Amino acid sequence: MDPKIVSYECDKWLPKEPSVLITFDDGYKDNIEYAVPILEQFGVKAMFFVITNNMESHSEDCNNSDASHLFMNWRDLVEIENAGHVLGAHTLSHPKMHEISMQTSQWQMEESIKKVKEHCSNPENPIHFAYPYGFIPQQALDFPKGCLAYGTVKAPPNPWNEVPNNIRRTYVPTGQMNIWSAMAKSWREQWFELQ
Ligand SMILES: [Zn+2]
């Protein structure tokens, strides 16, 4: 990928004020059942990274199977996209990418992005990518144009527009809502330190 293209596209989207991006990994059914209505209520758009093999196994309605309720299906994903959220791929089968070959890592990334693209309603939209567990391959993957790749807290704390292929994310701990405002305050301070 041409690094100039990446930096141009990132610069175009740089926010002018402290901003957060909310992301969901793995494509669990609770994303559409619980998270999307709450996001809607607050007028917030988010990004959803799905493990595409799980989507395929549970694409049909099988109300008698518990597994069918665990992950979203492709129709759910289209509904999410039509509501203005952004779609992403999270590999075909959620491997630890530092433990598999470069060739397999590249295939897992490319094929999962292709699957999401095939099912989404607007093939022009770039499909983004998140590394399972935040483990990145030994060498850099060759991402499609316009694709940003997301890590976890394992990623170094660099500005996302400078390292668009391993963007640091942090967890919002469940069951500890009392610490969320302190976390937001610290992110805000980091924003101004970087300016
Ligand atoms: Zn995951």
UniProtKB/TrEMBL annotation:
Biological-process GO terms, alphabetical? carbohydrate metabolic process
Q: Which InterPro entries match?
A: Glyco_hydro/deAcase_b/a-brl, NODB_dom, Polysacch_Deacetylase
Checking PROSITE patterns in the record gives:
NODB
Q: Where is the NodB homology domain?
A: 18-195
Q: Name one Pfam family in it.
A: Polysacc_deac_1
**Chief subcellular location:** secreted
The UniProt entry's GO CC annotations, sorted and at most eight, read: extracellular region
Subcellular localization, as worded in the UniProt entry:
Secreted
Question: Tell me, what is one Gene Ontology molecular-function annotation carried by this entry?
Answer: hydrolase activity, acting on carbon-nitrogen (but not peptide) bonds
Q: Which UniProt keywords apply?
A: Signal
**What is this protein called in UniProt?**
NodB homology domain-containing protein
Source organism per entry reads Paenibacillus amylolyticus
